[in-house]
Amino acid sequence: MCDLFVFPGAPGTTTQILTVNPDAGRSSATTFRPDALYGFVVASDGGTREDIAFRVTFTKPDNAGNQQIHVPRADGAAAGHGTEGTLLGEGHTGEVFSQGAGGVAWAGLVADPFTADGLALARFLQGLAEG
Prior knowledge:
two-stranded antiparallel sheet, four-stranded antiparallel β-sheet, 8 strands, mainly beta
């Protein structure tokens, strides 16, 4: 996991964004790991008890690199562990798909907006190397 962003969406909704590989397509694959569980665990009572989990899994990529996505939701005690939950929706990478009750999901390759000062980074790395 690289970055997690959560912010208000349309009225009555929340937008969640998770980035997992800023170097996808350059030095690593452009697909999601089929053996991984990507999860959002939420404390809906203001931050004291995690009671909702959205668990996202992907199948192995097909020959074109497309993957199926499964998004279940677990509530209460089940949110704290495991991989099970009530299926909210399924779809494919690169496509928006319904999550029921007006929700939608999307997963795929996008540019990472990360920027850095290359000269400063080089000086920092040189300083590390020199002790």
